[in-house]
User: Fold this.
Amino acid sequence: MRRMSLYTEAIVEDGFGVGNAVGKALALIEQICKSLQAQAFFKKSCEEEGVAVHKILTWVRTHWASLFKCLERFLSLRLAVNCFTLLANENHKVPKLRNKSYSDFKLDRADWRKIRLVYDVLKEPAVEEEWEVG
Assistant:
């Protein structure tokens, strides 16, 4: 019961639900995946931050555990994501977004905690399903 209380506290700690942080992360993933130039700059961000270069995974709503795998990869790329959102707007090779900027997708510590919370919640059923299928 105390564990559920901690989840509830984390969800409402700043007046916003975890959906805002996860939604921002998914929107950033979508923007990066739409542009080869953004993907190249993201790869460069990984290299500069010393993060293993991996393709960002998208959420496929019809695939079981897809959101879990997407968030798992996204969390592993945290340093590169932060670098990308800080620097992409200034890079002339990265196409500008319409009515937005990449800095709009910047995730603060509270956002990252909320994404981690969703990941942790999804982990048990995702791992359980993988074990049963495998």
Remarks:
- The CA atoms of residues 45 and 83 lie 6 Å apart.
- The two ends are 31 Å apart (CA to CA).
- Helices lie at 2-12, 18-34, 36-49, 66-76, 78-87, 109-133.
- The chain is about 65% helix and 0% strand.
